[in-house]
Amino acid sequence: MKHPNASARLALVALPALALSACSQMGPAPAGGPTGVAKGAALQQCETLAASFRHDQTAIDSATVVASGTLRLGGHEHSRPLPQGAAPAQPTGGNPVAEHCLVKGAMHKRKGSDGRDYAIGFEMRLPKAWNGRFYYQGNGGLDGAVRPAEGALGGGPLTSALMQGFAVISSDAGHSGPQTPYFGLEAQSRLDYGYQAVAKLTPMAKALIATAYGKGPDRSYLGGCSNGGRHAMVEAARGQAYDGYLIGAPGYRLPNAALAQLWGAQQWAPLAVPGATTQHPLNPTAKIPDLSGAFTKAERKLVADALLAKCDALDGAKDGLVQATQACQTSFKLATDVPTCTGDRNGQCLSAAQKTVIANVFAGGRTTDGQAIYSAFPVDPGLVGDNWGLWKFANSVALDPLSVGTVFSVPPGMFDPLKVDISARLPMFSATNDVYRESGLSLMTPPGNDNPVNVAKLKDRGVKMVIYHGVADAIFSAEDTRQWMLRLDKAMGGKADSFVRFFPVPGMAHCSGGLSTDQFDLLSPLVKWVEQGQAPQAVVATARGVGNPGGANAEVPAEWAPNRSRPLCAYPTVATYKGSGNVEDAASFSRK
Question: Is 473 an annotated catalytic residue?
Answer without folding.
Answer: yes
